[in-house]
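Changelog excerpt

This revision adds worked examples to the README so contributors can see how folded entries look when concatenated. The first example is reproduced verbatim below.
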Amino acid sequence: MSVKVSVILPIYNVAPYLDEAFQSLLSQTLTDMEIIAVNDGSTDNSQEVIDRYAAQDNRIIALRQENQGQSVARNLALQHATGEYIYMMDSDDKLSTHEAMQNCYDYAEKNNADFIFFDGESFSKEGVVRATWNTKRTHLVEENKPFSGEYLLNKMLDTRTHNCVVWLLFIRRDWLQNTELTFYPGIIHEDELFTTILALKSDNIYCLKQSIVKHRVRDASTMGLRYTKRNINCYLTVIDELQKYQLSPLTEKFARYTLSKVFYTGHVIPFKEKFAVFLRAVMSGYMKYIGWKSALVFWTKR
């Protein structure tokens, strides 16, 4: 028997934040939902917290796997999801209001959307809003009007407001199943690939002008970790796979937008690690996306 919303919650060593995440979900006014919590091989007491909440509320479906990364955890949860819609929340985040899921459901249903996107807020561990982490895009377009992913991607890339995170989306499950799209395993920045292809597959995307989620930025999160050659390699894999899916002026614009920033930021990695990632990019023909300015910074800035 299906429910209205399946919330997918991949969990890895976030025990200090799980109470807030579960409480924000279980206090939603939309009660016809399931929370699929996947413990991705946590070594802290995350499983104890999951078990405690699962014993209190049968809407929580607790799954476990060896540590294989967020992509595999999400794919496992998607196999078990029965909801009309999918929402993928980070396990150290919380919803902005008690009505967040109800508002998303009502709006998506009213418009028969493939998926909707909305705004969020990012905050640091001190609780301070992170103004530099852009989660505001809904000002770009109107509500209650369908847009193609191609139009939205072009507009967001042109205005430098593009943000690939999946926790700013609310997706119709049967449409997602028909796309046959899953998360690419074994990489970080997997949202970059998933959400970009997701957008390219749709001409029925709607904007909800509300802030739905509060996203925590912390030192141990994917976005908070020290920038390494793995970050660069994973971004290169994203571009490889995206261009396998579609090589077009739009995906080339995405590659230029992404790799110019990736290699500009990549100057911080150790000098001896730069050769392999730069050679990979050059051999893939990506120098035209990186640009000479970012390449110069990559090699010379300390």
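The second example, added in the same revision:
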Amino acid sequence: MTAAVIMLLAQEGKLGFDDPVSKYVEGVPNGDAITIAELLNMRSGLYNYTSAPELAESVERDPTRAWTPEQLLALAFKRPPNFAPGAEYEYCNTNYALLGVIAEKLAGAPLEKIFQDRLFGPLGLQRTLLPVSTSNAIPEPLAHGYLHGSPSYALADAPYPADLIAAAKAGSRKPNDDTWENPSYAHSAGGVISTADDLAIWIRALVGGKVFNADTQRLWLDSLEPEDPGKPAGQKYGYGITELSFGPNRVYFHGGEMPGYNSFMGYDPVNDVTLIIWTSLTISLDGKTTANTIMQKMLDQIYTVSPLQ
């Protein structure tokens, strides 16, 4: 959704994909060399703020704390970049925290209003919102979200320790209820609250060409590049969208993850296949993200076991 807003601003001539991020935000490591396109396609090299141990510690200690984008970016900027801009692909929430700041500067409004005015309202997404940073409320009805142990297992992809796994399997340690965490630490990198029905509308509209004009839509789809250059036929990532191939079939999708929740939304426009998956346990005891694991099994069933005719 953040990428879609940036695409619309580019469509209106308010920014260029080759613009350096330093044109809009000061103090970014390598900011003169990182482009808007490299933020969008996860190739900036910046440190991922959700990997910072102090973030997980803060969320665990004070889950209702409201974070500002500037505070989140500071966690990343005090650490050196992981690689030179454009050198490789690495999924990094810092990129989208920056894009959210840029969108607010250019549109002159808070991101929650930008999303509502440009995306949610026009598409009729009545159960979708980006909450203000001070809110940890979720509209009723809601599903509680759970995670075994510290938020770091979701935020920093830290593996579960053996003693936690053993205790959970024995039933002596229950997962934590992380429902009421303030999602402001995700914000433009994944803080939207929605429903399965609304996300089905959203992904079909986005991939189906109802959000951008034809030229921007073509540019958006052309942005896809292999995540691993050594596997050109493997999974690709572009401007806020992922492509997975099953023979001649293409599924365009994105996932979402916070402590307590994991999600997937995907659409195959040729075969008109829409798949939305919600799970209320972020990571299973075998260390796998739950929605993505179910997604892979379901897509294998659709395209491989029982291929579409």
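Reviewer comment on example two: Residues 2-132+147-305 form a domain with the Beta-lactamase fold (CATH 3.40.710.10). Residues 168 and 174 are 6 Å apart (CA to CA).
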